[in-house]
Design brief:
Elements lengths: L2 H31 L1 H11 L3 H9 L14 H28 L1
């Protein structure tokens, strides 16, 4: 690879890496910002959720009310995915730190 090709090659890597880092920074800020709400949802799922779910099953909740949160699988899947993402973040950064 000649000098011009090499500079172009590494310029592409620089641009791609810069964009990925900026996107990750934004995503991590948003992820961090919702964690308090995530814990609030976890507490709901371990508390009042069951009564709300049972009332929904009994037809006491209006059918036109958005109630994805009452889905057994939906909340569990969200909680599981959040935990898996936390582990993935740790694994990725541990690997980066080992290499760097």
């Amino acid at each position: 690879m000649n000098q011009i090709e090499r500079i172009k090659h590494f310029e592409e890597i620089f641009d791609e890496t810069s964009a990925a880092i900026d996107n990750l920074d934004d995503a991590l800020e948003k992820f961090s910002a919702v964690q308090e709400k995530y814990f609030e949802l976890m507490n709901y799922y371990g508390g009042d959720w069951l009564k709300d779910y049972e009332d929904d099953e009994a037809g006491k909740i209006p059918k036109d009310l958005k109630r994805s949160v009452l889905s057994q699988d939906g909340v569990y899947d969200l909680l599981t995915k959040n935990r898996e993402l936390q582990i993935k973040i740790l694994e990725i950064f541990a690997d980066i730190l080992r290499k760097g």
